[in-house]
Amino acid sequence: MGIACSISLTIYFYHLGVFKDVNSLQQLVGSSPIAGPLIFILIQIIQVVIPIIPGGISLAAGVLIFGPYWGFAYNYLGICIGSLILFLLGRHYGKPLITHLVSDKVYQKYNHWLDDQSRFEKMFALAIFLPVAPDDALCLMASLTNISFKKYSAIIFLAKPASIFMYSWALLQGGSFLSHLLVH
């Protein structure tokens, strides 16, 4: 039932154009002070679980629509919830789901991390902290290890703020720089 609801919402949001156009997203979430943030958080959860759009775009959209503080909070909440769901889906459905959702190139690149549990946890925490790794793929791959849900959750909740902040800041600064160049 939950998967069917998620797929239906994803199709609905896709038809509205919220995954392709920031203006459509802003019209959808910006119209209500209560429903808007909830819809945005839901979109963030969906984009983590079903990677339709690059996370960086939705991160920047959150900050642009809601401002730096609330945008960060809504991004953090949606991405963390999505990451927890992704891990649980990986645990439940196992390697067939993971190899279906993760490209073979990415899977092969990080597969060797799975051989050493202690090393994996350290590398996973570092990758989640830094905004350069394919977080969603690594969250799925973490579900193949014996890392506890509690430890996984702690890594997500403690390491995600830094990467969300750095990624959002870099995108916004880059956008400001480009708009400055285009205007002058």
UniProtKB/TrEMBL annotation:
Membrane topology recorded in Swiss-Prot or TrEMBL: Multi-pass membrane protein
Cell membrane listed as a keyword: yes
Any GO CC annotation of this UniProt entry: plasma membrane
UniProt keyword annotations, A-Z: Cell membrane, Membrane, Transmembrane, Transmembrane helix
One Pfam family in the UniProt entry: VTT_dom
Domain VTT: 53-168
Subcellular localization: Cell membrane
TM ranges: 38-66, 72-90, 123-144
Domain of life from the UniProt record: Bacteria
UniProt family annotation: Belongs to the TVP38/TMEM64 family.
Protein name: TVP38/TMEM64 family membrane protein
Native source species: Enterococcus hermanniensis
